[in-house]
Write a structure and sequence with these properties.
Blueprint lengths: L1 H6 L11 E4 L19 H8 L2 E6 L6 E6 L3
Antiparallel strand pairs: 1-3, 2-3
Length: about 70
């Protein structure tokens, strides 16, 4: 979620809703962050903890939404 707060140009609520969006259309993928990296762990955590997650291009072709679902 840190990337969503850091790079999103949208107003983001806190606590975070189960989605965020950004103005880029690049589809994110989980990656292995090096121990000294300051970023790169968020989506790996989402993929490990969520029951489902994904991305959708936003209407109008500007940016994407990243969402996740948690089973109760």
């Amino acid at each position: 979620m840190c990337s969503g707060f850091r790079y999103s140009r949208a107003a983001t609520s806190f606590p975070p809703a189960p989605h965020t969006w950004s103005a880029t259309c690049t589809v994110p993928e989980p990656r292995q962050a090096a121990p000294g990296d300051e970023s790169g762990r968020g989506l790996t955590l989402v993929a490990a903890l969520a029951d489902a997650w994904g991305t959708e291009l936003r209407e109008g072709g500007i940016g994407k939404t990243v969402w996740f679902e948690l089973a109760c």
